[in-house]
């Protein structure tokens, strides 16, 4: 291969959407793929120092592909994936040091790289608006869906429900616990749902991280359970068993959880903000993320209308079939080969 992949991000103790992107892309790219990484046990400061100082000396003229929002800021011969620019748009959502580092590093990285890949047209628009990157140097390549995300059989759903102590019907949210996920609006909508069925629970799967400035909400309302991070192997059945999936996020680079839920045949309600309309299309209910009453009405509609749930679930399942990691890898490989030949 004429390029080397920077896999420092896979050493993180907490794997989120970025790490899943890197892992799936490595599996889908035609191999063998050469990778370089810092020590697995390295702390954040050591890993960043390795990336900025040591990594460039190990390339021997080869193109570097840095797929996780970070890379050597002075290296020109590099393709970088910038998933979003939330730290530039909304630094208040992040811990102070984290925001300060990315606000310093990210514009310089984008300016120096030969080419920038991003994951949605929304993210591409924000990169072009906030930096001096030329439009022909920034390419949007959508993410894919793993084959494991498909409707699960009832036995698998029941096993996951027992594992996480979920009784009866449930609505589901999946994502990191951070301000931009906008759980406060969903919790207000849930609390305002006066005639909510007694056997319906709101399950929130996800964990907080050191990079975020709090959770963005106070005490969860009655009928809501925060179950923490769920193993990837449990996610297909957890999605499949949900009566509906809710995702009120106000800012996404792409938004994998709604697409994963749709792939599992579960109807989705998402916000109409940032990248989510282009990811979900017309296969989900799109709502104003700041209108709790609209979310209450949509949840009430889906819980009482089985035909609507079936129709929306089928439309979502068909829509999700358009996304694959093979297609993502093909488009990425094309960019890498183009830039390696320069």
UniProtKB/TrEMBL annotation:
Gene3D superfamilies in UniProt: Glycogen Phosphorylase B
GO MF annotations, alphabetized: glycosyltransferase activity
- InterPro entries of this UniProt entry? Glyco_trans_4-like_N
**One Pfam family of this protein, by short name?**
Glyco_trans_1_4
An example GO biological process term is:
lipopolysaccharide biosynthetic process
Taxonomically, the superkingdom here is Bacteria
Q: Which UniProt keywords apply?
A: Transferase
Q: Is Transferase among the key words of this record?
A: yes
List residues of the Glycosyltransferase subfamily 4-like N-terminal domain.
77-148
Q: Which PANTHER family match?
A: GLYCOSYLTRANSFERASE WBBK-RELATED
Q: By what name is this protein known?
A: Glycosyltransferase involved in cell wall biosynthesis
Organism for this UniProt entry:
Deinococcus metalli
Organism phylogeny: Bacteria, Thermotogati, Deinococcota, Deinococci, Deinococcales
């Amino acid at each position: 291969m004429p390029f080397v992949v920077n896999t420092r991000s896979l050493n993180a103790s907490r794997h989120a959407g970025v790490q899943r992107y890197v892992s799936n892309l490595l599996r889908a790219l035609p191999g063998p793929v050469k990778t370089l990484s810092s020590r697995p046990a390295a702390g954040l400061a050591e890993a960043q120092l390795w990336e900025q100082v040591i990594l460039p000396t190990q390339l021997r003229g080869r193109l570097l592909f840095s797929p996780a929002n970070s890379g050597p800021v002075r290296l020109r011969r590099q393709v970088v994936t910038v998933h979003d620019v939330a730290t530039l748009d909304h630094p208040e959502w992040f811990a102070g040091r984290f925001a300060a580092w990315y606000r310093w590093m990210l514009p310089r990285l984008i300016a120096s790289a030969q080419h920038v890949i991003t994951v949605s047209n929304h993210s591409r628009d924000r990169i072009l608006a906030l930096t001096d990157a030329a439009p022909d140097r920034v390419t949007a390549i959508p993410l894919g869906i793993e084959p494991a995300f498909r409707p699960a059989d009832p036995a698998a759903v029941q096993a996951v429900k027992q594992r996480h102590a979920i009784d009866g019907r449930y609505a589901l949210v999946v994502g990191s616990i951070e301000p931009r996920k906008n759980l406060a609006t969903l919790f207000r909508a849930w609390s305002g749902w006066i005639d909510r069925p007694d056997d319906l629970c709101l399950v929130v799967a996800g964990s907080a991280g050191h990079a975020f400035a709090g959770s963005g909400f106070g005490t969860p309302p009655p009928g809501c359970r925060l179950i923490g991070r769920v193993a990837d192997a449990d996610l297909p059945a957890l999605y499949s068993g949900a009566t509906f999936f809710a995702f009120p996020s106000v800012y996404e680079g792409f938004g994998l959880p709604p697409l994963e839920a749709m792939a599992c045949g579960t109807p989705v309600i998402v916000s109409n903000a940032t990248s989510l309309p282009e990811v979900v299309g017309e296969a989900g209910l799109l709502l104003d993320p700041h209108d709790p009453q609209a979310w209450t009405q949509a949840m009430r509609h889906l819980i009482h209308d089985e035909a609507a749930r079936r129709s929306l679930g089928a439309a979502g399942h068909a829509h999700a079939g358009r996304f694959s990691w093979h297609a993502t890898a093909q488009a990425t490989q094309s960019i890498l080969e183009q830039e390696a030949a320069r």
